[in-house]
Structures are given as structure tokens and as C-alpha cells.
Amino acid sequence: MRTPSSTVVIAGLVLIGVVTLFVKRPPRTATGIAAPQTQVAPAVAQAPAAEPVSVAARPSARSPPPAGAAPAASLPTVVPAAWDIPDPDTLPDDIYGRTVRRGRDLIARTSSLIGPDAADPAMRHAGNGLDCQSCHIQAGTQQFGIPLAGVWGVFPQYIGRENEVRTLEERVNGCMERSMNGRPLPVDGDEMKAILTYVRHISAPERVGQSLVGRGTPALPLPDRAADPVRGEQIYAENCVACHGADGLGQRLEATEAAETGRRYRFPPLWGPDSYNDGAGMARIITAARFVHGNMPLGTTFEAPVIPALDSFDVMAFINTQPRPHRAGLEGDYPDRSNKPVDAAYPPFVGPFTPDQHRFGPWQPIQDWLRANAAAASAIP
User: Fold this and answer.
1) Cis before 156 (ω within 30)
2) Is the dihedral of CA 300, 305, 308, 312 positive or negative?
3) Cα–Cα distance measured from residue 30 to residue 136, given in angstroms and rounded to the nearest whole number
4) Measured between alpha carbons, how far is 159 from 268 in angstroms, rounded to an integer?
5) Over the stretch 348-377, which tens digit does the pLDDT of each residue have?
6) Alpha-carbon dihedral 142, 341, 370, 71, rounded to 10 degrees
7) For position 275, what pLDDT does the model report?
8) Are strands 251-252 and 164-166 parallel, antiparallel or unpaired?
9) What is the pLDDT of residues 269-290, one digit of tens each?
10) What is the pTM of this model?
11) CA dist 48 → 53, 225, 256, 287, 362 (Å)
């Protein structure tokens, strides 16, 4: 047998090394989130108190968005770590455990405990039929579902709407007066204490002064055109009426089921007397579109949004032009006008833009003007 030459030996060793390197190379980790953009679903829905519900989206036969529209996008593009939220049901049956669970119930069954269906008229602080978890999905524990988890350690904080530092108690009462169209809870009362204890408990993974990744709602690029309520009406008619009704008044539970669940609605009203008022955050199209894109239909999460971004802006433009309760004194919001959101739909309007542009966009020019003219905006009475 002939002995292999040195050239052959070296080539063989190189080949073995390459194969070994390929076998041992670690798998690539995906960091992006692919978002389906071919389906449209109901605009806003309410999470049941007991358990999450998965809602299948229906295929849409709608024509595509107009040419030149901003592309749909899903943010964040990096998946944050899953939350490890402590389960209130694992707490013992002591004063602390009962208080935490009471706080959760107040978030999930607001209408029957401190709302219009409360047995004691003195306890009817919420003025509409919504529950807090109509916006704070899964009793405030869902990432990018306007969660309450992660809120505890970032208050007190500056709030531009009042132009002052506000406590968590004051922020809760801001929701009671606007989203719930009601009146404040006593800050030293048992109900406020229970809500704060629940928020503190589910915020356990949070470090004080540092927000959890997943607070708020997913960011969206602003469309380069005005949100279109006429197109939004078509989206609503084809995809939302099954849950929220053609009249937008939601699906009200029969008396027996309402008593059993402690809730007034299976799916909440999006306008009308039992919905949020015009001073609520959801009355702003940018805020509401981000919520819709990241959380609707019910069961959707930010990892796999169903509703395209542009559809979210358009359908909320339609919803937020429908009649709803009015909050008096809105002209007093944002006394430093440079802090006023560009999509706030009530006067005084900031900058050389029409009221309709503030309501529907395009909003980027307003944002650019505010950055360049902050001092002038602050001086607006």
C-alpha cells in the first residue's frame, strides 16, 4: 500500500476541521417577529374575568389599502422576555391574599363592584358598563396590553396632562374619570388599597424605577396620510359587528349571566353612553390604533398581530367619530401645550394645523413642528 503524500494528509485534516466546525456551530436564534397582514378582525374586545379566550380571525375580502399608504408594521422587532407574573390564586387565605384577589376582581369585574351595577349606590364610582380590563387585558397582566404589571415602580411620575408629578392613586382616578366616565375612588378607601396591592403584587418582577419591557402598547409607524373614517367604517362593518354590534353598543349579557360573572358585557360598547368619554386615552386614534394592532381580536398578542397597522388607524378613526360621553373642562388638559399629544381631538389645537389634521393626521408634520417650536407651543394659553 502506498503511503499518502503530505499534501493529501493536510487536505484531509482541513476537511475534517470544516465538517467538525459545521456540526458544532450553535443554531441561530430568531429575533424578529413575523406579522400576518392579510386578516382583519374586531376592533376592541373585553377579556373575560376567568380565563383567556382565543378568537379566530376571519379572512377579509376587502380590497388592499390605497396606493402610497404606509406599510403595516409590527413592533417591537425583538421579542422581550416572557413575564413571570405571580398568581394571586396561589396566595394563602389571609388578609394579604384576600386583598390582592379583591384588587384583581375590581379590575376584572368593575361594573358590578364599583360601577353602575354595584348593589350599594354609594359604591357606583365607574359611570359606564366597562371593566378596567376592557383596556388592561387579562386583568392587567398581558404584555403590551396596557398592563398594570410593571406600573408600581415607576410612580410617582410626571404626567403631561396635568403638568405635574402624580401618584399611582391619582393615575387610577384619572382612569375612573375618563375611561370609566365616572368619579374618583377615595384614595384612602379599601377599594383603592386593594387595587394598589394587586398592582404591587403582579409587578413583583419589576425593579423600582425601571419599566418592564412590555408596558404600554407596541409602537407603530405613523401613516403618511390621514386616517380614513370612511374606510374604517367598511373595516368595522365587515369585521367588528359580530362582537361589538352594528350599533357599536357591544354584547350585553343576560341578567343571569351578568350576575354570575359580575360583568355587564360579553364584548364592550365602543361608543354610546356606556363607553369611554372623549377625554380618555382611547379617544385618541394613535393610542387606540396601537392597542388594536397589538391585542385584537381577543386572544391576539404582540408577537403575532393580526390587524394591519393602517387598518387599525382607519377603524379607530371611524370608532372615535361616533357619539360618546363628553368630559367637561378638556381645555384645561396639558397646560404646557408642548406636551399635548398630536392626536388629541379637542381644542386648543397646537400649531398651524387644522383640527381635522390633529384628529386624523397625518401627524408627523405636527410632531416635527412641536420639536422645532416647543417654546411657542408652551406659550399657547
Assistant:
1) yes
2) positive
3) 29
4) 28
5) 999 999 999 999 999 999 999 999 999 999
6) 50
7) 98
8) unpaired
9) 999 999 999 999 999 999 999 9
10) 0.80
11) 7, 36, 16, 22, 35
